[in-house]
Design a protein that fits this description.
The chain is of the alpha/beta class. The protein starts with a helix and ends with a helix. The relative contact order is 0.13. About 2% of the residues have low confidence.
Length: 269
């Protein structure tokens, strides 16, 4: 074994390190939570998850545990523009001006389209998010990036929420969102349109962050052999994101937890 006699006896004389059961449980939960996120949780978010399970732990200690267990997060790539406006279409005013924090649900929704690559070819995903809780309330996925795609996402969101008239929906100035057909859909629902400039990612930064999390924290972590596989994987992330992913803007709660807590507080006022 290429070990000297003295080194062997020195190793044998040393007492074995005993790791308490509590510490082993902590390591086990850290690895499970990290794996459930597809290796996307950084030390800050992993610390929040562990505290939510009852562990009393600092971020510094989580950093040491991640280093010891070799839990490494991959970095994200830069934003890319997906849609472009047709210059003949009407453009709505920007009602948000990067104010992404409404005081209640069903006041401001936001949406966008992103591209997803599989071994069979491209898919396009459209989402509708309630900015109050960051919850994805409607989404649709298809091989073509059309007005029909974003309309299906909005119809699903509307049927789930049944919001009051006057709600604001914010998007970029892509041709799908400026089309007459989509504007008519919003008008029929009593929804006011708001638009940032195309290519100005900060005008719809919350939705762009969601797409970044979806891609770099989830679907890029495994091979996507087919469109059907991608659709199932996107559905799995929607469930994970809405139910389990913590947000600092939600007081470190998931979107659904945040909405449920708010509803409970209102009922008990």
């Amino acid at each position: 074994m290429r070990v000297s006699r003295s080194a062997f006896y020195a190793w044998k004389a040393r007492s074995a390190q005993i790791i308490p059961a509590e510490e082993l449980h902590l390591y086990s939960r850290a690895k499970v939570l990290f794996a459930a996120s597809r290796e996307s949780l950084g030390s800050r978010e992993l610390a929040k998850k562990l505290r939510a399970e009852g562990f009393i732990i600092t971020r510094y200690r989580v950093m040491n545990i991640m280093q010891k267990l070799k839990l490494t997060v991959k970095q994200r790539v830069a934003y890319r523009v997906t849609t472009k406006r047709k210059h003949g279409d009407a453009v709505a005013d920007n009602f948000l001006n990067q104010n992404f924090n409404p005081v209640d649900k069903n006041q401001v929704w936001a949406g966008d389209i992103t591209y997803l690559k599989t071994a069979e070819g491209w898919l396009y995903l459209a989402v509708v998010m309630d900015l109050y809780s960051r919850r994805i309330i409607g989404w649709a996925i298809d091989k073509r990036m059309t007005t029909s795609l974003i309309s299906r996402a909005m119809i699903k969101a509307y049927n789930v929420r049944r919001p009051p008239k006057g709600l604001v929906f914010h998007s970029d100035r892509g041709s799908q969102y400026t089309s007459k057909r989509y504007r008519a859909l919003l008008q029929g629902y009593g929804i006011r349109s708001s638009m940032g400039d195309v290519g100005a990612c900060w005008d719809n930064a919350v939705v762009e962050r969601f797409f970044g999390s979806l891609k770099h924290d989830w679907i890029f972590k495994i091979h996507q052999p087919s469109r059907s596989h991608m659709k199932r994987d996107v559905a799995a992330y929607m469930k994970y994101y809405n139910l389990y992913r913590l947000h600092s803007s939600n007081d470190d709660l998931s979107p659904i937890q945040y909405e449920n807590l708010a509803s409970f507080s209102v009922r008990n006022c």
